[in-house]
């Protein structure tokens, strides 16, 4: 009987739960731009199952944005980097900013990132596991990576990818994306990554074909169970402590 009750609780909670997701936008864009990219391209069947929060990066763009003329300013960047993508400026400040945002507006269950935001989102679970980032917020339960890659700095790579990342992950790889080879290398750092391939370039893709939508919905169902299971465990511990 106890197991049946637990299963009923899980089913009920899963039906009503919405994983809360912090969304990290691309280089020299904004939270509002990413909001439009996602909500205008993805079907409501996907977006309605997530509580999406779109943050602006901490630093105003220091140069021209690739989306000028397509999306209105202001534009922001998470950190600055050299041409080899091995030296970073304001990186620690960026990590602190994200953590403070998560404390003030969370709790968050997972991250979703595009481009520069995807590189950050993909690295943070490993860095959190090492105790070098996001030490004051709950453990990340999943990530969604759109047009991502790995940090090229050996120091950051050691912190982020030296051990396989067990956090559930969904990766979007574009056939024409200049970062696709780097995104494929990133997959090797994750245990059992889920991948959606699309024919476009470096962009938030539409989820139009049946296979992509089915993959996305299956991943959402999985993370809903992870999030709800974690919440029920916490409630059980709190109830036991109060008894």
TrEMBL record:
Give every Serine hydrolase domain span.
16-210
The superkingdom listed in its UniProt entry is Eukaryota
Q: Output the InterPro entries linked to this UniProt entry.
A: AB_hydrolase_fold, FSH-like_dom
Write down what this protein is called: Serine hydrolase domain-containing protein
* Source species of the chain: Spirodela intermedia (Intermediate duckweed)
> Lineage of this protein's species?
Eukaryota, Viridiplantae, Streptophyta, Embryophyta, Tracheophyta
């Amino acid at each position: 009987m106890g197991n049946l009750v637990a299963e009923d609780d899980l089913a009920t909670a899963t039906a009503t739960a919405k994983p809360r997701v912090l969304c990290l936008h691309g280089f020299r864009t904004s939270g509002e731009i990413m909001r439009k990219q996602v909500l205008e391209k993805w079907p409501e069947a996907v977006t309605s199952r997530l509580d999406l929060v779109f943050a602006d990066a901490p630093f105003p763009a220091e140069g021209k944005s690739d989306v000028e003329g397509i999306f209105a300013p202001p534009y922001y960047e998470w950190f600055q980097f050299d041409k080899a993508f091995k030296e970073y400026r304001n990186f620690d400040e960026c990590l602190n900013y994200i953590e403070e945002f998560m404390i003030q507006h969370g709790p968050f269950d997972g991250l979703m990132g595009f481009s520069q935001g995807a590189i950050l989102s993909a690295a943070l679970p490993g860095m959190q596991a090492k105790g070098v980032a996001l030490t004051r917020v709950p453990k990340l339960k999943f990530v969604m990576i759109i047009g991502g890659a790995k940090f090229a700095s050996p120091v950051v790579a050691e912190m982020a990818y030296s051990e396989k990342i067990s956090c559930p992950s969904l990766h979007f790889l574009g056939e024409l994306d200049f970062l696709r080879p780097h995104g494929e290398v990133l997959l090797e750092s994750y245990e059992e990554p889920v991948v959606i391939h699309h024919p476009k370039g470096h962009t938030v893709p539409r989820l139009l074909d049946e296979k992509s939508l089915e993959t996305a919905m299956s991943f959402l169902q999985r993370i809903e169970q992870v999030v709800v299971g974690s919440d029920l465990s916490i409630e059980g511990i709190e109830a036991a402590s109060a008894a």
